């Protein structure tokens, strides 16, 4: 998605240690017009009319998922919640997700009532890097018996293994921007750059 | 907002201990069409064209704020982040918010770059009860020198002191549903019920 790649080049800040800060337009301050264009593009990439629910994970996936849902017939959005082992009972699907950013492991839960075998789920998230979060969400959807239509990702770090791991499980992943290389001096090299 | 009150009556679950669960349509699974109607109503209540930014707090405020922003000329949404005392540096406004639900105190931060004295801020959140979260957000906006156009709240527990506390500080608060009484047997009594 050219608009997004241009914006990452303009406003993204690359820091040492594999850090790309996009907090001025994506995950702290959010550019709603840009996110609408993302929603429209996710719809183009996933035209399947049987998609009836979007699953994401708190916190930064939520806004993107809600705007995107408007392009999928206002389907409901379910966001997985990060907890620290309180009240994991029989009413929820749960999985563990390791966060490299925060250096710890979360229990992530979705209430069972909100996923069912009749659902065809589109997963939406802002970043795909090592794949832990996305694999956790896939795990939860599989526990419920729902179908997975695919995963729509805003920014994929293509030089990490997450995208390959998830695709090798047969899950379709569409990323609006795939970064193949980045460093503070030379900036981002995107997969489909010339 | 009648549509919301009807939905709370239909799908809200009241539990002992002052708990109203609205997780089937508002803060775990989200009804996007309903939230669009909320956004439209917030716009009607705050027609001020100088509002140029929406501030909310993670996690459940984010989706409501993003949908609402579409009714405010696609203005940017900034969400305050809950941290646990890592990296509070000079680049952020911070305040402390006590969560009664989770029984602990969070540091809540907003990057200074995203709020300025030229801004006129609408604060959006899902719940107003004791007022701690909203007072914290107001504190952050005041630190930045920005104006506060007001606060748009989805559900106010009118029998707790938060709404009065905030209004007594001269901040306009508009709540789409104000609950004056609730209990598991008799359900919700809303402020403007006959």
Protein traits:
homodimer; 194 residues; alpha/beta; 8-stranded mixed sheet; two-stranded antiparallel ribbon; 27% helix
Count of runs of 4 or more consecutive helical residues of chain A: 5
Low-confidence stretches of chain A: none
Helicity range of chain A: 25-40%
Radius of gyration of chain A equals 16 Å
Give the overall shape of chain A.
Answer: globular
Oligomer: homodimer
Q: Between the first and last Cα atoms of chain A, what is the distance in angstroms?
A: 14 Å
- Neighbour order of strands in the largest sheet of chain A: 6-7-5-4-8-9-10-11
Q: Can you summarize the main beta sheet of chain A?
A: 8 strands, mixed
Give me the strand/helix succession of chain A: HEEEHEHEEEEHEHEE
Mean pLDDT level of chain A: 94
List how many beta strands of chain A DSSP finds.
11
Textual characterization of the structure:
The structure is a homodimer. Chain A is built from five helices and eleven strands; from the N terminus they run H-E-E-E-H-E-H-E-E-E-E-H-E-H-E-E. Chain A has helices at about 1-10, 30-45, 60-70, 130-145, 160-170; strands at about 15, 20, 30, 55, 75-85, 90-100, 105-110, 120-130, 145-155, 175-185, 185-190. The longest helix of chain A is centred in the N-terminal third of the chain and has 14 residues, at about 30-45. The first copy, chain A, is globular, with a radius of gyration of 16 Å. The first copy, chain A, starts with a helix and ends with a strand. The model of chain A has no long low-confidence stretch (mean pLDDT about 95). The interface of A and B includes residues 62, 65 and 111 of A.
């Amino acid at each position: 998605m050219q608009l997004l790649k241009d914006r990452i080049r303009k406003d993204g800040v690359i820091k040492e240690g594999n850090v790309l800060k996009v907090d001025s337009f994506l995950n702290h301050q959010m550019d709603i017009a840009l996110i609408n264009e993302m929603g429209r593009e996710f719809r183009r990439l996933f035209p399947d009319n049987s998609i009836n629910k979007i699953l994401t994970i708190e916190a930064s996936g939520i806004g993107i998922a809600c705007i995107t849902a408007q392009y999928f017939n206002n389907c409901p959005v379910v966001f997985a919640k990060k907890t620290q082992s309180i009240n994991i009972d029989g009413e929820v699907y749960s999985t563990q997700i390791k966060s490299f950013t925060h250096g710890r492991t979360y229990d992530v839960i979705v209430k069972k009532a909100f996923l069912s075998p009749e659902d065809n789920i589109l997963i939406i998230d802002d970043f795909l890097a090592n794949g832990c979060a996305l694999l956790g969400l896939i795990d939860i959807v599989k526990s419920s018996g729902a179908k997975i239509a695919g995963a729509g990702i805003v920014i994929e770090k293509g030089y990490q293994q997450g995208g390959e791991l998830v695709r090798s499980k047969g899950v379709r992943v569409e990323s609006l921007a795939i970064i193949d290389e980045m460093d503070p001096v030379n900036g981002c090299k995107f997969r489909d750059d010339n």
